[in-house]
Amino acid sequence: MTTLDLVYNPVSGSFSQQHLDRLVSALEAERFTVNPQPTRADGVTLTDRAELVCIHGGDGTLRDVVRALGDRAGYVPLCVAPSGTINLVARELDYPRKPREFARKLAQAWARGPETWVVAPLYRLGELPIVSCLSIGPDSHAVARVSGKLKKRIGRYAYVAAMMQQMREWPRQPMTVRGTTTDGMRFEEEAEAVIVSNAALYAGPFRLSPEAALNADSVELITVQHGTRLRIMALSLAAMLGLPVERFAKASVRSCRRVEFDRCVTPVQVDGDHMPDCAYAIAPAGIALRYVV
C-alpha cells in the first residue's frame, strides 16, 4: 500500500465534498492509503509519512504545497487531481478530472516508476515558488480585482468580469526588466506588461510561447513595451487563436534562466493568485518537481 497525502482546498471555486469523497474511494480502490489534508488560511499541513502528495485543487494550492514541502519538494513526488478554477499544470500533464480515471492513471504511472515521470525544474520569485505563471501589469491588476464570491459562483469567468471592470481604469506602470537568456545573453528593456510562464499554458488552454513547458529548464518571458488596451487585447486574441504574439501584439518572447525587475510594481499575479508584495528576481530554485504521470 502506498501512503498518499491528499491536499484539497475547501474554498476552491469548484470544490465539491461529493467529488472529494469519490476521489478518496477511487484512490483507495487502487490500493493507496489516503490521508485527506484540507488547506487552511495559514498554509498547508502535510504528514511526514506520505510517499506521494496529491493536490486536489488549482495551481495556487499546488504552489502552497510546494512551499510547505520546502527542500523536500525535490524528493516527494506530486500529482494533481483537477479541482481549481483553471488548472494549468493539470491541463499540461493531462490528468483526468473523473476520480476513477484519475486514480487508475495515477496507479499505472506509480507502478511504472520514476523513469517515466515528468521532471519540472522549479523557479522562484524570491522565495516564492512559481509552478505555472506570473504576471505584472493589466492582467495582474484584473486578478487583484477578482471577487472571491463571484469566482466561487462562475469560476474562471470571474477573471473575465474583472478584466472588463479593469478597462475603465487602465494601469500603465513602466518598469525595467533585465535578465539572462538560456544561451547566456544579457538583456534589458522597458515594459508595461510582463508575463512569465513556467508551464506550457497560460490563462487556460492558451500557449504564448512554443518553448514553454513544465520540463524546460527555463521560464518564458513575454514583455509588452506599451501596455495599451489595444495591445493587451491583441495579445489575448493572438493567444486564443494560436497566433505568434511577437507579430500580432508586438511582444518580445525570450527563454530565460533569470529575470530581474528594477522595482516591484504591484499587484503581482502568481499561479492565478494576487500577491500584494513581490521580490525583484526570478531564478532557478536548484530543485526539480516530479509529477507522477
Verbal overview:
By secondary structure, this protein is an alpha+beta fold. The protein folds into two domains: 115 residues, Rossmann fold, CATH 3.40.50; 158 residues, Tumour Suppressor Smad4, CATH 2.60.200. It contains nine helices and 15 strands. The strands form two sheets. Strands 5, 6, 7, 8, 9, 10, 11, 12, 13, 14 and 15 form an eleven-stranded antiparallel beta sheet that branches. A four-stranded parallel beta sheet has the order 2-1-3-4, with helices on both faces. Helix 1 packs parallel to helix 4 and helix 5 crosses helix 7. The protein is globular and about 55 Å long.
List keywords for this structure.
single chain, alpha+beta, Tumour Suppressor Smad4, four-stranded parallel sheet, 9 helices, globular
State the gist of this model.
The chain is α+β, with helices and mostly antiparallel strands and 293 residues long.
